[in-house]
Design goal:
The chain is α/β, with parallel strands linked by helices. 31% of the residues lie in helices and 20% in strands.
Length: 207
């Protein structure tokens, strides 16, 4: 079984980024969605990213953002990878100078296979819990049995993951990667080093 990659999202401070990297995280997520309690400005993200060691992927999370603002944040922060978490169309996602993956919220009527096949150039599909009016970061899990087995793209599993359920999630779903935010926080936007360490330990045990 391939090693499950880990993205720790909602980074707002350098010390949290460093704790995630030291624990073995593969990617760090920065939320550029102002209504989110985990929002970070492009300037602060740039300062954090400038201090990171090599071989750590930085991911920018957007929700229905203007193309000009996405371009500005790519340039300002020096982001590697884009995550679109709103209602963006494939044509929108493909216009930028960075690879991307698309987040899908598991609403009751979603056809995951059909949706993932619309985004032909996405590097992966992220599946997250659904709550009406909330684009992500709910801290809620969804029924993993709803995930189709025939997805054509790598799967990133999000939604309510923490050190108590991530090993079970990996065993059942066998995703390419897991994405955690609230499950490793002391409070919204502030990470907890011990929770990060526990989470990464559980991921390692599941592989």
């Amino acid at each position: 079984m391939m090693r499950t990659r880990v993205k720790i999202c909602g980074i707002t401070r350098y010390e949290d980024a460093l704790a995630a990297v030291e624990a073995g995280a593969d990617a760090l997520g920065f939320v550029f969605y102002p209504p989110s309690p985990r929002y970070v400005t492009p300037e602060v993200a740039a300062q954090i990213i400038a201090q990171l060691p090599p071989l750590v992927t930085t991911v920018a999370l957007f929700v229905n953002e203007t193309a000009d603002q996405v371009e500005n944040i790519i340039k300002t922060a020096g982001i590697d990878l884009l995550q679109f978490h709103g209602d963006e169309a494939p044509e929108y996602c493909e216009q930028f100078s960075r690879p991307y993956f698309k987040a899908l919220r598991m609403s009751p009527d979603i056809d995951v296979v059909a949706e993932s096949e619309r985004f032909t150039k996405a590097r992966a599909i992220l599946l997250d819990a659904y709550r009406p009016g909330v684009p992500g970061g709910t801290g809620e899990a969804f029924d993993w049995d709803r995930i189709p087995a025939n997805l054509s793209k790598p799967l990133i599993l999000a939604g309510g993951l923490d050190d108590k359920n991530v090993a079970q999630a990996i065993s059942r779903v066998q995703p390419f990667a897991v994405d955690v935010s609230g499950g490793v926080e002391a409070s919204k936007g502030l990470k907890d080093r011990s929770k990060i360490t526990l989470f990464m330990k559980e991921v390692a045990c599941a592989n």
